[in-house]
Amino acid sequence: MKPLDIDIDSLNDADFKNYKLVDIREKDELLNWPCIVSCPHVPLSGFPENMDSFNKNDNYLIFCAMGGRSHHLAEILSQQGYTAYSVNNGIDSVNAYLKDHGHA
Fold it and tell me: Does residue 6 contact residue 85 with C-beta atoms inside 8 Å?
């Protein structure tokens, strides 16, 4: 089985563009700790009802607060035939990457 976790800093800009960022945190977490770019919000608490938010033709970088919930969801999606990776260290590493690469 392929690795499910990814260090976002290992991606160059060209690689990053091949993925869609998806925030699976809960609504209160978004207010207290926003992502610095707009991206789909698909809360983990809504699964599996919101599974139609994902498309098997796309590649996903899924993040939460720390990486635990996103790992769980990446595992579920991968078992269903999706290309999904959990971003190590969650929102902190996503925001740092976006700032460092001029996406913010």
Answer: yes
- Among left, alpha and beta (phi > 0; psi -120 to 50; other), residue 90 is left
Alpha-helical runs (H) found in the chain: 13-16, 27-32, 68-79, 90-100
Residues 13 and 3: their CA atoms lie apart, in Å, by 21
Which residues lie across from 20 on neighbouring strands?
60
On whether the CB atoms of residues 33 and 59 are closer than 8 A, the answer is: no
pLDDT tens digits, residue range 89-103? 999 999 999 999 998
- What confidence tens digit (pLDDT) does each residue in 14-43 have? 999 999 999 999 999 999 999 999 999 999
Question: 104: which DSSP letter?
Answer: -
Local structure of residue 24 (DSSP, 8 states): -
End-to-end distance of the chain based on CA atoms, in angstroms? 34
